[in-house]
């Protein structure tokens, strides 16, 4: 089973993802961007305000393709529980927001179309809900993707994704105390996967 954690920067996804590693030691924990050289290229683009958004999309897509073949698919073939900090929905929401000012029509659908031919959809996605202003404040706006105006567009894209697939997304209130959020996500992972903490 593939469970993904999604949400705006500052929503606490990574904190939750790290905490889950103690609760589910037999699961495979992974993330996007990856630590591969593809992921390194993606991370370099994050600090470049002038990076071409279409070129940036294909960097992310290459990283995702490698992630699928190197980590996700082998782990699922071994019947492992896989928990990923960010996955395709991050790409759809963030890169579609980046492409909104280009000449591309319907950027969200464009990004989804590129992935549809080869990706593996998550079995469930836990969305940590947080408003863009709080998210930007928490994230520190260290890069172009963490600014409140941009995050508003990203939040709108996430909303569209959740409305299109309500059966896949489960929303978690990320304004709650970190321990409450972690406890709620742990409960959801157990319900979805059938695996109790400690296994």
Structure description:
This protein is of the alpha/beta class and about 200 residues long. It has one domain (about 1-195): P-loop containing nucleotide triphosphate hydrolases (Rossmann fold). It contains 8 helices and 5 strands; from the N terminus they run E-H-E-H-H-E-H-H-E-H-H-E-H. The protein is globular and about 50 Å long. The model has no long low-confidence stretch (mean pLDDT about 95).
In the CATH hierarchy, the architecture is 3-Layer(aba) Sandwich
Query: Strand share of the residues?
Result: 5-15%
Major β-sheet profile: 5 strands, parallel
Number of helices: 8
Rg from C-alpha positions? 16 Å
Spatial separation of the terminal alpha carbons: 14 Å
Q: Got a strand count?
A: 5
Class by helix and strand content? alpha/beta
The named CATH superfamily: P-loop containing nucleotide triphosphate hydrolases
Instruction: State the helical fraction.
Output: 40-55%
| Average predicted confidence as pLDDT | 93
> How does the overall form come out from the CA principal axes?
globular
Strand order of the largest sheet: 2-3-1-4-5
Poorly predicted regions are none
What's the CATH topology label? Rossmann fold
């Amino acid at each position: 089973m593939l469970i993904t954690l999604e949400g705006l920067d500052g929503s606490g996804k990574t904190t939750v993802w790290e905490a889950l590693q103690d609760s589910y030691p037999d699961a495979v924990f992974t993330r996007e961007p990856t630590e591969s050289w593809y992921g390194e290229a993606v991370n370099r683009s994050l600090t470049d305000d002038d990076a071409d958004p279409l070129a940036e999309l294909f960097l992310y897509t290459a990283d995702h393709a490698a992630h699928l073949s190197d980590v996700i698919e082998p782990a699922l073939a071994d019947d492992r529980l896989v928990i990923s900090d960010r996955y395709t929905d991050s790409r759809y929401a963030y890169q579609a927001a980046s492409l909104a000012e280009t000449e591309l029509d319907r950027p969200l659908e464009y990004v989804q179309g590129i992935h549809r031919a080869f990706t593996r959809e998550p079995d469930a996605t836990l969305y940590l809900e947080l408003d863009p202003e709080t998210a930007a404040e928490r994230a520190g706006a260290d890069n172009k993707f963490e600014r409140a105006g941009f995050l508003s567009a990203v939040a709108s894209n996430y909303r569209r994704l959740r409305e299109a697939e309500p059966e896949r997304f489960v929303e978690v209130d990320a304004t709650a105390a970190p321990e409450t959020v972690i406890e709620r996500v742990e409960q959801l992972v157990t319900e979805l996967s059938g695996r109790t903490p400690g296994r």
